[in-house]
Every structure is written in C-alpha cells, then in structure tokens.
Amino acid sequence: MRVGMSLTTDYSSYDDVRLAGRHIVERAAAANRSELDSLFVGDHHVTPRPYFQNIPLMGRLLAEWGDKPAGCLFLLPLWHPVLLAEQVGTLAALAKGRFIIQCGIGTGRSQFAGMGASLRTRPSAFEEALDICRRLWAGEAVSSDGRFVIENARISPSPPQRVHVWMACSIAGMDRAARLGDGWVGMPSTTVDGARKEIETYLEHCARYGRAPTAVALRRDIFVAGTEAEATDVLEEAVAGGYRGIAREALVTGTIDQVADRFAELAAVGATDILCRHLITDQTKVLASLERLAEVRQKIAAV
Questions:
Q1: Residue 114, CB half-sphere, CA atoms under 13 Å: how many?
Q2: What's the pTM?
Q3: pLDDT tens digits, residue range 216-272?
Q4: Residue 198's Cα: distance from chain center in Å?
Q5: d(CA 167, CA 131)
Q6: CB 224 within 8 A of CB 293
Q7: How many CB atoms within 10 Å of residue 167?
Q8: Cα separation of 241 and 244, whole Å?
Q9: Under DSSP, is residue 200 helix (H, G, I), strand (E, B) or coil?
Q10: How far is it, in rounded angstroms, from Cα 93 to Cα 159?
Q11: Rounded Cα distance, 278 and 290, in Å
Q12: Are the C-beta atoms of residues 161 and 89 closer than 8 Å to each other?
C-alpha cells in the first residue's frame, strides 16, 4: 500500500492568507521529507473563504517535492479543456515524476452558476473535456463542435510522460470511472464497510471493460499522535465541531501503530493508496503528525 498526501487548501480559519500559504508550502516539504508516495491538491471555485487554487499552488509546491507522483483534482465541467490541457502540460513538464489528475464531476449550484457552467449537462461535458485533453496531451490538433467549440487547437509543452487519470466519484459514477479512468479515488467519508462495497463495485465495472486500474485510492482525514491521549483529544474536538460532516468512524487518529492498523484495514478491502488530509489546523501538530506518518508508511508499505 502507498501513503500519499492530499493537502488542505481551504484556509478559512486563517486571518493572514500569506501565513496560510507558507503553511501549505511547509506541509508539502514535510511530506517530501517523510518520503510519502504522492502529493495532491483539490479544486473548488467561487468560494467566499480563502481557498488556494490548484494550478499556481501546485507550481509552487513542486519546488518542495521530489520525483514521486504529484497532481491536482479538476472538476472537469468547470474548466475549458484547452486551458486545462495547457496548464497540465506545463505542470507535468515542471514535475520530476509522473503527473496525475484526479477528475470529478462537481457539485453545488452556486459553484456552477458562478463559473457559468450547467449542472444538467455535467456528465457529457465531463467526458468531452477529458477526451479533448487526452488528445491534446498526445500532440493532436483538435477541433470540436460539441459542448466546447474548438478549432484546430494544439498545446505545447506536451506532458513528457502519459498523464494518469484517477476518477473521484461515488458508486453512481463507477461505470464512467472504470470506462475512462486509470484509477479511482473514494470519498473521505466512507467507512471501512462502505469502502469495501465501493471498491468491489468499481472492480466489477473494471472487469466488465477488461481494464486493470493502476490505483484504488481512498482519501482519509487523519492525525498521527505522539500518545493515545493526544489522539483522543484531537478526535473528540473534531467530532464535537461536526468535522466536515464526516462520521467519527471514518476519521483516522491514533499513535503510529494504531494508524498503521487502520490503514491495514483499508488495504484488506482492496485499497492500494491512502491519501491523507489532516483534520486539524495547528501547524506544529500537523508537521509532527507528518513526521510520524513516515513511520506509518514504513509499517504499511509491505501490505
């Protein structure tokens, strides 16, 4: 099993956005020191609170990262595919390792309205955008008269190696994920039993299309504590605050051994990757947790 980092990019609790920016960079550097297996940032738009946008942020974070995979989530219906393909081509050229995009269909009426996109046509826009991006990354000149009207578009630089595409979705999107993606990313709110059902469903769809996924990833909100008492305090505070609406049993807190055991449970139901996001904002505690996560990764690597 691989252990990666999905960095928090919503910093609504910070009054100083420059401090928030420095903290994101520090966390990426710490993830690199801990030799984590991947680094990702998210995608959200027209937010009234500080949310660091993925493309400029990843460009900065690649300077702190090594040669392991890195990438961004993109809510494809909200992006013009030529612009997205150009940006990914440049990021992939800057990255020392493979660039991976996580693709989501997107939700939220206000987000779509603010970006001038249609909720109703998201499925077809998603598939068309992905097809255009892949053709552009392959060096083709692309024209289209579908949802995106494009004439003889080309991009440069092209990614130096094939961009892998992981689909972020629930069971409702599994057929599309198996048909079009290289891998799948599950939600952080799923319990172990829920993850088992989702992974089984995804792999059944993959088998039907004769596809072998390169990743079956689960996002988890975590904290690796120095003591059991510290882990309990962090968990209770998060639960009391209704943390992101995520059920208590889906949150992962504990000592190094306890977190490794929780990750092993997820490996046992078929997960190949755990993408970690910290459920606290205290920078000192986050950096300490990241340092301990290196030991968790070592314990779980052989699973």
A1: 11
A2: 0.95
A3: 999 999 999 999 999 999 999 999 988 988 989 999 999 999 999 999 999 999 999
A4: 17
A5: 14
A6: yes
A7: 25
A8: 9
A9: helix
A10: 6
A11: 9
A12: no
